Amino acid sequence: MPPPSKKIQSRSLGQNKLAQLNINLPPLPNTTVGSFPKSSELVEMRYKVSQGVVVASELERKEKIAIDACIRDQLRLGLDVLTDGEMNRSDLVGFFAKKIDGFEPGGTVRSYGNRYYKKPVIKKKLSWTGPMTVETWQFAQRATHKPLKAIVTGPYTLMDWTFNEYYNSREAACEDLVAIIKKEVHALADAGAKIIQIDEPALSSRPQEFSLVADALNEITSGLKSYFILHFCYGDISTLWARIRTLPVDNFSIEATNSNFEILPLIKKFPTPKDFSIGVVDSHSHIVESPRKLNTTLRQILKIIPAQQLWLSPDCGLKTRTMEEAQSKIKVMVKSGEKKRAAILPSRK
Ligand SMILES: [Zn+2]
């Protein structure tokens, strides 16, 4: 692989694909993984709906107001590829389990640190009963001229993070979830979503099952022209990276700050011409990174990843941060990225 040059003229594979989709992004595009902090009013209202005290339509109305506000915030902060902030999602598994026929709510289990979630249970054959995310994506995309990523949780994580009381094997459960998420992704693409992110935080939880993830992504992305981002976090991918890089997606969204940039030597050893959304601020820390730290981080990353393949992102979703922390982290990321942009890349006409 040639060393990254100071002035970059050629386009990456990903930039070519985005150009075909009529998406023009500046060099070093800024994005987020998806979720933003929710107001206490929204959290309380979701609880009240679960208790039957408030009607669901009132919550949906408030969620739309929150999505609108979140998009305005992202525009103000200077992000290039936006999300709906996941304002209508409780968590990345529960949201889908509620909409997929065959799941039932289960007991509360611990996930990350002191966070808890209700682990759904597969009680019967799983099936797709219609689009789960399309209407919200359309609503959010209408609010901005900038591209807004559609985000779905991948089938492997949906299988791994739920209990199975119906299928004979994990493979069988995964197979039906692949069919379901494939329908969802096709529905999103049909609705006009050009950038689709698949979240597979469980990707490395059982390396011996990696072929399930690979088969799932082959099936889901096959025949679609969309630009696919694969997000993963939590866990050791050192033995898997050489295989992960061959997955049929255009951009790998990787938690990096929180794992001390262990991914960089792996990328150096097993490079790929595909794009990366590298986590340059830690979503799990209250501390807001300094511009100086970001500058060092970017320099370190750009030694390994050619600039035309690099997007900047927080490590993971920002929903566990306060609004102030989330915005400050994005601000420092955007500012540092813009500085680098000006220094190393010519403006493309
Ligand atoms: Zn994540």
Q: Overall pLDDT, averaged?
A: 93
Number of helices: 12
Approximately how much beta-strand content do the residues carry?
5-15%
In the CATH hierarchy, what is the architecture at level 2? Alpha-Beta Barrel
Report, as a whole number of angstroms, the end-to-end distance. Answer: 27 Å
Sum up the overall morphology in one term: globular
Under CATH, the topology is which? TIM Barrel
N-to-C order of helices and strands: HHHHEEEEHEHEHEHEHEHEHEH
Largest sheet: 6 strands, parallel
Can you walk through the features of this model?
With 349 residues, the protein is α/β, with parallel strands linked by helices. The chain has one domain (13-38, 74-340): TIM Barrel, CATH 3.20.20.210. Helices cover 40% and strands 14% of the residues. It has twelve helices and eleven strands. The strands form three sheets. The protein has a six-stranded parallel sheet. α7 packs parallel to α8 (210-221). The two termini are 27 Å apart. Bound molecules: zinc ion. Zinc ion binds next to loops.
